[in-house]
Amino acid sequence: MTRAAIVGAGMGAFGVRPESPKRLFAEAVAEALASVEKGMDARDVQEAWVGSTAFGGWQLGNTAAYLVEQAGLPGVPARRVENACASSGFALRDAAQAIRSGKVDVALVGGFEKMNDVSGLHKRYWLGVSGDTAWERMAGATFPGVYAMMAARHMHEFGTTREDLAAVAVKNHANGAKNPKAQFQKPITLEKALASPVVASPLTMLDCCSTTDGAAAVLLASERVARRYTDTPVWVEGSGAATDFLAVHDRPTLTTLEATRRAAREAYDEARVQPRDVQVAEVHDCFTIAEVLAVEDLGFAEKGQGGRYRGPVRVNTSGGLKAKGHPLGATGAGQAVEAFEQLQGHAGARQVQGAEVALTHNVGGSGATCVVHVYRRG
């Protein structure tokens, strides 16, 4: 079975973007092509996978074909992948598996979302449909409310504090300040995080990620052709995925995301690594408590200690969803962009020196869907 490598990656700035989805997507693809060390012609791309939740009604009927055409890739077989906030993470998994099968040698993986051209009421509706509609959303539960329950339970069981949660936001905003593509590029203080308005107790505004417009893209190549494009491929060494009960009341615990644990085990086993081998991790911090749970469920910290985790794995060097932004369908691809840049040594002020192994962790909804990838510098 041939391996798959990322040979190019790109994304536009995340934030409030007035451009259409086609402009955002074309920008990301153009940057990905330009990043290929030895050059790549768009005509080399054989198939494409595009992640999107169709937020706000951006279901264009034939989204993938429309976007790849606008990105200068007419005729390329393309499909849209929808798996809530993990859409482009699963698109990456699907493309890597197609390459491993031997059917495809060069693939495009992208994602996009336009979230800021609908009202606040409609935003809450479109966010809510990624959770349990009948028992949660229709009863008034929002994602901040669901994650607030997780945070409150974690505090009760393990003594996690508001300061522990706020420290996650402070760290990620400090990282985002070094990322020219991040939605928020300004550090915050612990005092500011603690004093921000309550959204769903114990979570405040600065515990929550923002609504974001953006697109990201990565180019994958098989082991047969990867060296044509770069001398430093970033190999997708492991890929794991899992699901869990959609409604949190069906889960045995609020303080473990079992889909993360299962996906991580599969990815680690396939890559033949342990959590201690990872130097850089982009984890799905849609809320600060989500990062706390992630570092525990990925095996970087003991259960209950995630709120006090300080290394050695560098977590969310991009700023994470918290500061970089969370354009739902683009988030998984955006995480892969950061992993690629870190392992190629192109992350600028965010660079983790000597990084050889990276991980991305992309969650859908309140944890019902998860995909984890492990990467190694070639």
What does this structure look like?
The protein is an alpha/beta fold and 378 residues long. It has a single domain, classed as Peroxisomal Thiolase, Chain A, domain 1. Helix content is 34%, strand content 19%. The protein is built from 12 helices and 12 strands. The protein has helices at residues 21-35, 63-70, 87-100, 120-128, 143-158, 162-176, 190-195, 226-229, 258-271, 288-297, 320-323, 331-344; strands at residues 4-11, 47-51, 78-81, 106-113, 198-200, 203-204, 214-222, 234-243, 280-282, 314-315, 357-364, 369-377. Helix 1 (21-35) crosses helix 2 (63-70), helix 3 crosses helix 12 (331-344) and helix 6 packs across helix 10 (288-297). It is globular.
Task: Please tell me how large the radius of gyration is.
Answer: 19 Å
Anisotropy-based shape: globular
- Biggest sheet strand order reads 3-2-4-7-1-8-12-11-9-10
Tell me about the largest β-sheet: 10 strands, mixed
